[in-house]
Amino acid sequence: MRVAMIGAGYVGLVSGACFANFGHTVVCVDKDARKIDGLNKGEMPIFEPGLAELVELNAKAGRLSFTTDTAKAVKAADAVFIAVGTPARKSDGHADLTYVFQAAREIAQAVDGEKVVVTKSTVPVGTGDEVSRIIADTNPAAKVAVVSNPEFLREGAAIQDFMKPDRIVVGTTDARARSVMAELYRPFEDQRTPILYTERRGAELIKYAANAFLATKITFINEIADLCEQAGADVQEVARGIGLDNRIGPNFLQPGPGYGGSCFPKDLLALLKAGVDYGTPIRSIETIISINDHRKRSMARKISAACGGSIRGKTVAILGLTFKSNTDDMRESPAITVIAALQDAGAKVRAYDPEGMEQARTILSNVDYANDAYSCAEGADVLVILTEWDMFKSLDLARIKSLLKTPVLVDLRNIYRPADMMDRGFSYHSVGRPAAERRS
Questions:
Q1: Are 307 and 171 within one domain?
Q2: Distances 8 to 26, 238, 285, 324 between C-alpha atoms, Å
Q3: Which residue, 84, 118, 176, 260, shows the most beta carbons closer than 10 Å to its own?
C-alpha cells in the first residue's frame, strides 16, 4: 500500500520506516526542510537503536522517501497518517492540537477521491470528530474516513515494539476504512498479533488509559520503596513478589527517580483535563502527578543526605541525563529537576550522558559536561547514577573510587548490590533497599 506519514518526528519516522520494512511504500512529510534534507542524506534527527539502519535499508530499496511536499504525498497515498506532536499547553495542561488540526486542513486541501486519514498522534478523546469536521469544512467534496490508530512505542525499544506489538488498536466503524487498515496491518497476521477494532473515541482513550496505568505502577513502587527503606526491607524483593502475580506483572515495577519523557507527563495531564472537561474528575491521576513531581525533588535531598546533609560547595557528578536509557530524549527527564535542586542547594554539577548532552545543553544551565564516566567522577564529592545506561552497569569501580574525592555513590537505579559496594569501600546509597550492614 501507499502511505503518507505527516510528521517525521519520533512516531512518524519510526512508524514510516517500519511500515516500509513490511513492504509498503511510505513517504514521510515534514515542514522542517533541514530535517528532510538530513534524512535524505541518511542523517537521523533522533537517536533510536536500529533506526538509522532501518531507514537506510528501506530508502535504498525505494520503499521509503522524505519530502516537504504534503499535497503530492497525500494525493498518491491510500492511507494518510497524522503523526505530529501534541505537547501539553503551558497555559492549562491540555494537549496542544495545533499541529494536528493544521495537518488535517492541509490533507483536506490535497484530497481528491476517497482517502483514509489515520490519527497516529496521541490525542484527547473526541479529536477524531474534530479532524473529520475540519476536513469536511475545508473540502466538502472529500470522501474521507478518519481513523484512530494510537501508537504504543517505548523510546529505546520502538522498532521492536512496532514489529512485534502486544496489540494493534484501530478505531473506526467505517467498513472501507477498516478494510484499508486490515490490508495495511496484514503482515501482522502471520505472527497472530491481536488487532482490536473499536469505536474511534474508545481507541483514543485506550492510549491515555494505558499510559496512566503504567505511570501508576511506577509511582506505586516508588512509594513502596520509601517504605522499604524505613522498614528495612528490599523493594526489589517486594517488586518481584508482587510482579509474579499474573494480575499485576513485573513490568514498570522498577523503583527510581520518577517517570519522565515525552509521553507520560503530558498524557496524564491531558487525561486529567479530559476528566474535568467531561465532569468526571480522575482524582487518582491528580495524585500520581503530584507524587511524581515530589519524587524528583526528593532525589536531591537524598543525595544531600548521602553527603552528610549538605552539598553546598560540593561537586556532584551525574551519570545519565536522559529520562531513560537508549534515547537522547531529555523531555521531562528527572535529571532536569534533580540538577536544578542540587544547584539551588549550592552544589556544582558535572554530568555525562552517552547520547543526551546535546539536548541537555539547551535545557540545563551552569553544568560542566564530561567526556566519559571517569572524567565526570574525577575530583567529585559524590557520584550519582540517574539513568540506567548499560555502560554504567560495568564501571571499573576501583578506578571510580580512586577518582572520587570521597567514595560516595548514590545509585538511583539500583544497578549495583549494596553488599558488593560496601566490600569495595563505598558509602553506597540506593532506592528502597536497606544498607548493607543491616543485612546480617
A1: no
A2: 11, 42, 31, 22
A3: 118
Strand order in the sheet with 195-198: 64-67, 25-29, 2-6, 79-82, 114-119, 143-148, 168-171, 195-198
Residues 323/330, Cβ–Cβ less than 8 Å: yes
Closest listed residue to residue 382, CA positions, set 291, 320, 306 = 306
- Both 191 and 256 in one domain: the answer is no
Q: Is residue 58 part of a domain?
A: yes
Assess whether 45 and 169 both reside in one domain. yes
| Predicted pLDDT of residue 436 | 60
Same domain, yes or no, for 293 and 146?
no
Burial label, 209 (beta-carbon count in 10 A; 0-12, 13-18, 19+): middle
Grid coordinates standing for 13?
A: 519516522
Answer yes or no: do 273 and 404 share one domain: yes
Query: Rounded to two decimals, what is the model's pTM?
Result: 0.92
Instruction: Give the rounded distance of the alpha carbon of 21 from its chain centre.
Output: 23
Spatial separation of the C-alpha atoms in residues 366 and 313, rounded to whole Å: 14
* 204 domain residue, yes or no: no
Under the banding of pLDDT at 50, 70 and 90, the label for residue 437 is very low
Domain that holds residue 355: 210-438
Is 313 part of a structural domain of the chain? yes
- Assess whether 18 carries a catalytic annotation: no
CB-based contacts of 396, cutoff 8 Å, min separation 6: 374
